[in-house]
């Protein structure tokens, strides 16, 4: 869905194909990609092709880029996608490795979650992360999510499989 909002340190806006060089900084980084469901991107052109497929009119998808106000640089992306069959919003995110540990992911996702709650009734939000990915576990805990169930997932290309946890936050 179209988004343009601000938090204390971030501008949250839709990604556009012209963002491909900035997005490649995390989509093409093996360190960032370690636990991601998508395979590592090997060229800026691959990222550009993916960005062209994003549908900003989809009312069930709130995916956006995060621009650091201080530097004006696009540093990450993420948001929530609705799964009607489960009546749950699924959280996902990426952040350049050089920006890890600054609280940007929690700040961005809190802003996006608040925005979506103004537009939709939300029953629950879930996030899945590889058990070894302690940083993602911490992000979800800071968002008020708690352990829901064990799980697993594999990369879309089948190259790796991970034992995982699903964390969940329920709303009235």
Which labels suit this protein?
single chain, 172 residues, alpha+beta, Aminopeptidase, eight-stranded mixed beta sheet, 5 helices
Helix-strand blueprint:
Blueprint: E1 4-6, E2 10-13, H1 20-27, H2 30-33, H3 44-51, E3 61-68, E4 74-83, E5 88-95, H4 104-119, E6 124-130, H5 134-142, E7 146-154, E8 161-170
Parallel strand pairs: 5-6
Antiparallel strand pairs: 1-2, 2-3, 3-4, 4-5, 6-8, 7-8
Helix pairs in contact: 1-3
Rounded mean pLDDT score: 96
From the 3D structure, determine the CATH topology: Aminopeptidase
Rough outline: globular
Named at the architecture level, the CATH assignment is: 3-Layer(aba) Sandwich
**Between the first and last Cα atoms, what is the distance in angstroms?**
24 Å
Radius of gyration: 15 Å
The CATH homologous superfamily is called Gcn5-related N-acetyltransferase (GNAT)
Low-confidence stretches: none
Q: Approximately how much beta-strand content do the residues carry?
A: 25-35%
Question: Can you describe this structure?
Answer:
The protein has a single domain (4-170), classed as Gcn5-related N-acetyltransferase (GNAT) (Aminopeptidase). The chain is built from 5 helices and 8 strands, in the order ββαααβββαβαββ. The protein has helices at 20-27, 30-33, 44-51, 104-119, 134-142, and strands spanning 4-6, 10-13, 61-68, 74-83, 88-95, 124-130, 146-154, 161-170. The protein has an 8-stranded mixed β-sheet, with helices on both faces. β3 (61-68) and β4 (74-83) form a beta hairpin.
